[in-house]
Structure formats: C-alpha cells, structure tokens
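quick one before i forget lol
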Amino acid sequence: MLYFYPKDNTPGCTTQGAEFRDHHKEFKRLGCEIYGISRDSLKSCSGFTAQRQGFKALCSAFGVMKHKNMYGRKVRGIERSTFVIDEKGRLAREWRGVKVPGHVEEVLNFVKAL
C-alpha cells in the first residue's frame, strides 16, 4: 500500500503517519506493506533510503501532483492519496483528496476484506 503525503512534520501528515504506524502490525498480519511517499528531501525524510527522483517519478506515475492554494498563492504539491496494490500487483483501490481522521481505519477495513 502506498500513501502520498504533502509535507514532513506538519500536523496532518504527522497524524496520518502515526496512525499507519499504530496499525502497522495489523496491516503486516494481513500481508500488507506500507510505504509513505513525499517529495521532501532525504534529510527531511531521514527514514527514506531511495533517491528523491524516484519519489518524484512515483508521484507523477500515480498522478498525485496537483495545483493547490497555499496562503493565497498557487503552488504545485502532493494531493494526499492512498493506493492499495493487491498481491498480483494490481491496483485494488485508491483514495484521493484524503482527509486524515478515520482514513487509516477505512484502509485497514478494506485490506481485511481483500
């Protein structure tokens, strides 16, 4: 499962990551790996080991780069999104424009139903 988040160390992204962390054992028991992806630097995302260009390519491939309004100006950034890939490598479900509260539980319930 891939989830795309806009920015490290912001309240919504931190909450989302913490909720996936808190449910990690349940996802793992169901055979589901979790990968969080942003365009932040490797220094900012100290836990990531892939190069930043690889994340940009993934963002492009999944179409999560969007124009957004930030403090009254247009910026290009990541739309908070989640994608579940099944064991055969097929896209099983996608969520775009994710709102953090309750999202992890919704994804977990979907994975349980697979």
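fyi The radius of gyration is 14 Å.
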